[in-house]
Amino acid sequence: xxxxxxxxxxxxxxxxxxxxxxxxxxxxxxxxxxxxxxxxxxxxxxxxxxxxxxxxxxxxxxxxxxxxxxxxxxxxxxxxxxxxxxxxxxxxxxxxxxxxxxxxxxxxxxxxxxxxxxxxxxxxxxxxxxxxxxxxxxxxxxxxxxxxxxxxxxxxxxxxxxxxxxxxxxxxxxxxxxxxxxxxxxxxxx
Length: 190
What we know:
The chain has a five-stranded parallel sheet, sandwiched between helices. The model has no long low-confidence stretch (mean pLDDT 94). It is built from nine helices and five strands, in the order βαααααβαβαβαβα. It has helices at 20-34, 41-50, 52-59, 66-77, 87-96, 110-117, 141-149, 162-170, 181-188, and strands spanning 8-11, 100-104, 124-128, 155-159, 174-177. Helix 1 crosses helix 2 (41-50), helix 1 packs across helix 4 (66-77) and helix 2 (41-50) crosses helix 3. The chain is globular and about 55 Å long.
């Protein structure tokens, strides 16, 4: 077995490990409908891939309490989280070879519940959530914290949005813009 390219892996959750864009889109469309607004799935999906704030400005800029209602609907949808195919196996393969996993998410401590429900919590050395108090990505503060605390010098940041890549690069780490587990495996040569 050849040596791994990286020792440490800093993962994003939504859109990288967790196939949450479908979940979030369903919740967003449902919330718009509660306000009497009909919007097509694909437009909402694309807007959410940019950011929740962008989607709200685009489709619900002046709707009172929209974000709160959307987050309630999304939390209900996330009661049944779905990982991308192959995530568990890749985490296991990296761990078996001595690699460490970390997670940075803008979500609150619901992240820990999601990791437990999907049976991958045990793979993570540390999980950083919004409750940890760091600036949001692309600010590299949370990544620098992990890099310093765990002496990470061979690390890869894996996320599905440019903000993940920007934060990783600003922290002096290599980055991978996530599209699929297959492409990630190819880059890792696994």
